[in-house]
Design brief:
The protein has 705 residues and is of the alpha+beta class. It has four domains: 102 residues, Beta-Lactamase, CATH 3.30.450; 194 residues, 2-Layer Sandwich (Beta-Lactamase), CATH 3.30.450; 222 residues, PPM-type phosphatase domain (Phosphatase 2c, domain 1); 112 residues, Histidine kinase-like ATPase, C-terminal domain (Heat Shock Protein 90). Helices cover 31% and strands 27% of the residues. It has 19 helices and 27 strands. Strands 1, 2, 3, 4, 5 and 6 form a six-stranded antiparallel sheet that branches. The protein has a six-stranded antiparallel sheet with strand order 9-8-7-12-11-10, sandwiched between helices. Helix 4 packs parallel to helix 12, helix 17 runs antiparallel to helix 18 and helix 18 packs antiparallel against helix 19. The longest helix is centred in the middle third of the chain and has 38 residues. The chain is elongated, with a radius of gyration of 38 Å. The two termini are 65 Å apart. It comes from Actinomadura hallensis. This is protein-serine/threonine phosphatase. Keywords: ATP-binding, Hydrolase, Kinase, Magnesium, Manganese, Metal-binding, Nucleotide-binding, Phosphoprotein, Protein phosphatase, Transferase. It catalyses: O-phospho-L-seryl-[protein] + H2O = L-seryl-[protein] + phosphate. InterPro entries: Bact_Sigma-Reg, GAF, GAF-like_dom_sf, HATPase_C_sf, HATPase_dom, PAS, PAS-like_dom_sf, PAS_fold.
Length: 705
């Protein structure tokens, strides 16, 4: 005959008696330790009804436990058992049914009676204490790689199996994920876990978790750090406790430590002292002896390995997160009429870095570059490649290259990187012009963007296909221009959002379309961003995910003006008058003189080098932008004219008077622009974009400093 399941677990703070119960609920077998547990001899118990073990108020409860055996069920409960000397004790009683034999030939159930040891008898058995500390406990609290969680589980093992109260202190440099060096007694420590088995709140208030401190000289805490050896104090009398409290300037510590027995166990891993475990037995319990210290040091040695592993993981994770934060944009920028939201979620919880990235870059002329890319692979290697591409693409965007040209340069860069190590990436690059309401998109092997109109319709935009960046051969990268209705939602994303092991990509695309359906027109952007990642956090096998959502609105018509001027020197005078009148309407009279001069220089430059009519544009957003469009593809360059040169000073004047200036090519020619700051308005567009949600969300740590 064999019991069903395992026997109830025992620990160093309890003692268990096993009894055999027959079908009539009488005791037919009794363990040899009946006197230690119940103060009775086995002969006095055999033949008695099981209910004689408990008081009148608990008989019905014990009957219910024994009835469960008929259904093959194991039950347990807490009840008061009677001792031989007439006293009583609280016990955990477990009834286990027996299977595989004749009930008439032996017990039909086993009854486990577990009572707490009296204080004077706890910690008496070294073998029981060692087994309670070592058997499976290190595996249990060492399963986590989080430093704080490992420390909390560590003290839960030490208390109550080894002592009544315990705390774990480690080097502050260890908590900060810094390199841990050999430290002296004056090392800065942090207390990361405290617990006790008596429920006394004074332990956690006197020795608070999270406290950073340096222990004073003359205390046992300083001694363990100076010697890196265990400190054994069999009995701390009231005078010694008061001395510790005085040196520490912590009065309540004297009351808690009075008449206790204490041992401080250093945690040493890889020949480096990481901290120590402070173990305390309160008055009334057996004092620590030398054998207890030996057992404690064996446990502390194993605990140090766990703490060191958690420390190494924390440092690697902090390094990876710092890398990811440095590679991804800290904040996004866009024109005032465009609202942008983003989400980023790494595929691996262990490494937490990946090759996906996103960008929203405000460009001159109320335009914005919206970019999402995905480097093949995971982890640090993919993140490093992503950082190179993002930096290059950010530079190309600021150079105002068209999307197709920028991706072509990126393709050449990936080919060069692939000579040392194969790489490829997909990317979609879009530029939205808030004055014309058009968006130009180029894609290299990426999934199609989603455009949701204000009327509730949506579609995946058909962009000319091209192979991923870094893949030799295939079609050239081309762009396509779309006209966007005012208030439309533009969504670009990586494949991790719509594809995983348990879902086909078509299902994922259909889900994305449903999110941005008719009801998405008036939904807050933050709600839409949350909806895109709903349900993906529980997927342990997901790919990296990057999502960029933009609500595209045109710049109000009263914030920009455009005029076409003939290729005639008289156009310069007319341009001055047009600029003066418009700035008066905008209330920017103080910028009139400078803007007239800048417009004159740009138009004069166009008249000299470009044929055909000239277009002059003024845009008022966070800055005042003056643009001159002509039909020449040649880009001007800044040069310093010699004293006897008659020309070459126009762009020098522009560079000195404007906040910044630049050029870009168009399909019909080029644009030369200059920008001035508006008094009382912050020109930093990135501060105006609400890229951060109002509440915490998973992955937020990847975007904030």
């Amino acid at each position: 005959m064999a019991p069903r399941g395992d026997a109830p677990a025992t620990d160093s703070a309890s003692r268990t008696l096993v009894l055999g119960i027959d079908g009539s609920r009488r005791i037919v077998q009794c363990g040899p330790n009946a006197r230690k547990v119940l103060g009775r001899d086995p002969e006095d118990l055999i033949g008695r009804p099981a209910t004689d073990l408990v008081g009148e108020e608990a008989k019905a409860e014990l009957d219910a436990l024994l009835e469960a055996k008929d259904g093959g069920q194991e039950r347990n409960g807490v009840m008061t058992v009677l001792r031989g000397d007439g006293s009583s004790a609280d016990a955990v009683v477990t009834a286990q049914p027996m299977v595989g034999g004749d009930p008439a030939a032996g017990p039909a159930a086993l009854l486990y009676v577990r009572v707490a040891l009296p204080p004077s008898e706890r910690y008496q058995d070294p073998a029981l204490m060692r087994r309670a500390l070592m058997d499976d406990q290190v595996t249990r609290f060492g399963a986590s790689l989080d430093l704080d969680q490992s420390a909390r589980k560590l003290v839960e093992v030490v208390v109550p199996h080894y002592c009544n109260a315990a705390s774990v202190l480690v080097l502050e440099s260890l908590v900060a994920a810094d390199e841990v060096h050999s430290e002296s007694g004056s090392a800065v420590l942090r207390r990361i876990a405290v617990t006790s088995d008596d429920g006394n709140a004074a332990w956690t208030s006197t020795f608070p978790v999270g406290e950073v401190l340096v222990f004073p000289e003359g205390t046992p805490y300083r001694q363990v750090m100076e010697t890196a050896r265990p400190v054994h104090l069999p009995h701390v009398d009231a005078g010694a406790a008061a001395d510790i409290a005085r040196r520490w300037r912590r009065g309540p510590a004297g009351e808690l430590l009075s008449d206790v027995s204490m041992v401080l166990l250093p945690m040493i891993a890889r020949d480096t002292l990481l901290g120590f475990i402070a173990c305390t037995r309160v008055p009334g319990f057996r004092k620590f002896d030398a054998y207890d210290v030996e057992i404690g040091m064996e446990f502390a040695t194993r605990a140090a390995i766990v703490i060191d592993n958690a420390r190494r993981f924390s440092r690697e994770r902090a390094t990876a997160l710092a890398l990811q934060r440095s590679l991804l944009p800290n904040r996004l920028s866009a024109p005032s009429s465009v609202e942008v939201r983003h989400r980023y979620l790494p595929g691996s919880k262990l490494v937490e870095v990946g090759g996906d990235w996103y960008e929203s870059i405000a460009l001159p002329g109320a335009r914005v570059a919206l970019i999402v890319g995905d480097v093949a692979g995971h982890g640090v290697r993919a993140a490093v490649t992503m950082g190179r591409l993002r930096t290059a693409l950010h530079t190309l965007a600021n150079l105002e290259l068209p999307p197709a040209d920028a991706l072509h340069v990126m393709h050449e860069l990936m080919i060069e990187l692939g000579e040392t190590e194969p790489h490829f990436a997909t990317c979609v690059y879009a530029v939205y012009d808030a004055t014309t309401g058009t968006i130009e998109i180029a894609s290299a092997g990426h999934l199609p963007p989603l455009l949701a109109g204000p009327a509730g319709d949506n579609e995946f935009l058909q962009v000319p296909p091209a192979p991923p960046l870094g893949v030799a051969g295939g079609a050239a990268i081309e762009s396509r221009e779309f006209t966007v209705e005012d208030g439309s939602l533009f969504v670009i994303y990586t494949d991790g959002l719509v594809e995983n092991r348990g879902r086909d990509i078509d299902d994922g695309l259909a889900r994305l379309q449903k999110i941005f359906g008719p009801d998405s027109v008036d939904r807050p952007m933050e709600d839409l961003a949350k909806a895109t990642l709903a349900g993906v956090y529980a997927d342990q096998h997901r790919d990296d995910i990057a999502v960029l959502i933009a609500r595209l609105r045109r710049l109000p018509e009263d914030q920009y003006a455009s005029w076409t001027l003939p290729a005639d020197p008289a156009a310069v005078r007319r341009a001055r008058g047009l600029v003066r009148t418009r700035l008066e309407e905008w209330g920017l009279e103080e910028l009139q003189y400078t803007t007239e001069l800048l417009a004159s220089e740009l138009i004069t430059n166009a008249l000299r080098y470009a044929p055909g009519p000239i277009e002059l544009r003024l845009l008022l957003e966070r800055t005042l932008v003056c643009e001159v469009l002509d039909r020449s593809a040649a880009l001007p360059r800044l040069r310093r004219a010699e004293d006897d040169d008659e020309n070459g000073r126009g762009l020098l004047v522009v560079s000195q008077l404007a906040h910044r200036w630049g050029t870009r090519r168009t399909a019909a020619g080029k644009v030369v622009w200059c920008e001035q700051t508006v008094p009382g308005v912050d020109p930093d567009a990135s501060k105006q974009v609400s890229g951060w949600p109002g509440e915490a969300w998973p992955g937020e740590s990847h975007h904030r400093e």
